[in-house]
What we know:
By secondary structure, the protein is α+β, with helices and mostly antiparallel strands.
Amino acid sequence: xxxxxxxxxxxxxxxxxxxxxxxxxxxxxxxxxxxxxxxxxxxxxxxxxxxxxxxxxxxxxxxxxxxxxxxxxxxxxxxxxxxxxxxxxxxxxxxxxxxxxxxxxxxxxxxxxxxxxxxxxxxxxxxxxxxxxxxxxxxxxxxxxxxxxxxxxxxxxxxxxxxxxxxxxxxxxxxxxxxxxxxxxxxxxxxxxxx
Length: 195
Ligand SMILES: Cc1cc2nc3c(=O)[nH]c(=O)nc-3n(C[C@H](O)[C@H](O)[C@H](O)COP(=O)(O)O)c2cc1C
């Protein structure tokens, strides 16, 4: 039996790094579909497909900045003027965000909540990898009022039914993407051979 191993996709995975500073163009509709198809292939106990995404693009990115900043301020959250300025400066260039939530589905008591969140995290990881493979920069952020209930609500994710898990920003890297040094995996791995 011949086994053919294609290393190119693994090389691509190994070169992924998060890229925060991005600009237009965003992924096209076809590319965005591929990124979302990748999310749909995340491991998922019980086929609950707990991930939910809200696409925010174009002018809506600026509206999200206004909404989240005013909600943070209204609810007494800490936001210095320097932080607000830097968030606005960052988002002024970002052409697309994907807001991420995990649906709780209270009717299902079999799959623990942590497994639903892990599945949603895995879906996001698939999106980050797909975006990278398509040549885009992507970055998962839990800023922008992720933990302010009113922000999640305004995005359509009622905190009674969803855990809001932040945003993935997507676009074309502004600066050349340099390889990122990673720690030696051996430090994170043991071999178990029995008791
Ligand atoms: C759930 C989650 C939330 C994150 N939130 C933030 C954030 O709010 N701000 C930030 O600077 N990095 C955040 N990060 C880290 C970046 O997305 C990114 O992983 C980090 O900069 C390291 O880059 P790398 O992905 O290339 O290793 C978050 C990562 C995860 C997994």
